[in-house]
Every structure is written in C-alpha cells, then in structure tokens.
Design goal:
This protein is an alpha/beta fold and about 210 residues long. About 40% of the residues lie in helices and about 15% in strands. It has helices at about 20-25, 50-55, 70-80, 90-95, 100-105, 115-125, 145-160, 170-175, 195-200, 200-210; strands spanning about 10, 40, 40-45, 55-60, 130-135, 165, 180-185, 190-195.
C-alpha cells in the first residue's frame, strides 16, 4: 500500500478486513509482526507514535479522539505539545478551517456535538501541519446531513497539499472523492485502482458496495 505526495487514498472493505489495523500499524500502535513502513524514504517501522508525529504524520482515530474534560483550545494545544510554543499561525489556520471551534474555544470537548468533536480531532491533528493525515472512519456516528460536509472538509485539507490516507465505512462516497482506492478483504488487497474505476466496477459494487 502506498500514498504519494499530496495524494488522497481511501481504504474500504467489510468489517474485520483489517482496515483500522492498517492505520494503527502505520502510526506505531500495533505490535510489529512483519513487513515495513516507509515514510519519505525512511524506515519508520516500529517507531513509537510520538516519534512518528515528529516525522510529519497526523492520526485521527475513529473513537475517543478528543480529551473530553479539556476545552477546545486545550485540545488544540495538545496537538502541538511537542513544540515549545503554541504555533499561532497553525491555530489560526485551524480556526479558519473550522470556524465553530473558534466560537466554542472555551467549551469542554465532551459537550460538543459528534460532528464538532470530529472537527476538533482533525484540527488537533493539523496543528503540526502534517505531510500525511491518517483518518479512521471520519464519518462514523455523524448525522446523514453532516457527512457530506465532513467529506468536503477533508477534500479541502487535501486540496491544500496534505496527503490523506482514510479508512471509511461510506465506501461509495469515499471512492467518489479519492484519487485512488484499496479494497481490503481478509487482510489482503483485493482491488487497487483509481476511485472512479473501483466505484464503477460491477464486481466491486456487487461484493463490497451493496450493488
């Protein structure tokens, strides 16, 4: 599996296929049992997440992705904890991308709506301006009317030059928007192609996209 500079790649497949494990393996959250993870020409296999963050990779897990007892601004500060000072330009960029976070900056994260918490989790991951953003099921648990908005925001992040590797349950919409997709089944790549090709492949639609 590969993500090129600035590329938008989506991983889809049935439950239990290993999609989230891929993300966790890239970010150093699984026990290494084989294979390698290479980023920007360097082998980062087995590095701890705090070291991987410093290499330029951000990660937004599917669940428990905010500090509920901390305020919005404190959560964003946590995203830049490896720096000696709060990067004000990065903070302003996050507020411009997610204006609701500016309005709720003093509010406890645990009292935000599901969509707002997802924005906060993404904003925190963007505080270090990563070259690659890992997103695990960003639309999970969102109300249907918020899903398109979330995908639009991810599109904008990618358009601004951040490469995206995303695992997503809403496979049709994810493939419609991405540059390239992987269909994972039983821990193996069953199909690899550009998003539109996979979306229009009769076999892929029948086996993995519900027809």
């Amino acid at each position: 599996m590969a993500v090129d500079d600035g590329e938008y790649v989506t991983v889809v497949g049935p439950n239990g296929a290993g999609k989230s494990t891929v993300m966790k393996s890239v970010f150093g959250l699984t026990t290494h049992m084989g294979g390698t993870v290479t980023f920007d020409g360097d082998d980062i296999t087995g590095l701890a997440p705090e070291a991987i963050i410093r290499r330029g990779i951000g990660y937004v897990p599917q669940t428990d992705n905010t500090f509920a007892s901390l305020s919005v601004i404190e959560n964003l500060e946590m995203g830049a904890y490896i720096l000696e000072e709060m990067p004000q330009e990065a903070l302003e960029a996050v507020f411009e991308r997610f204006p609701i976070l500016r309005e709720r900056r003093e509010q406890k994260a645990g009292t935000l709506s599901g969509g707002q918490q997802q924005m906060l989790a993404m904003g925190r991951a963007l505080m270090l301006d990563p070259d690659l953003l890992l997103l695990d099921e960003p639309s999970a648990g969102l109300a249907p009317d918020l899903v398109d908005d979330m995908f639009d925001r991810i599109d904008a992040i990618n358009d601004d030059g951040t490469a995206v590797l995303m695992v997503e349950q809403n496979a049709k919409e994810a493939l419609r928007r991405c540059d390239r997709g992987y269909v994972l089944a039983n821990g193996r790549n069953r199909y690899v192609d550009d998003g539109e090709t996979l979306l229009n492949d009769p076999q892929v639609r029948r086996d993995f996209l519900g027809g």
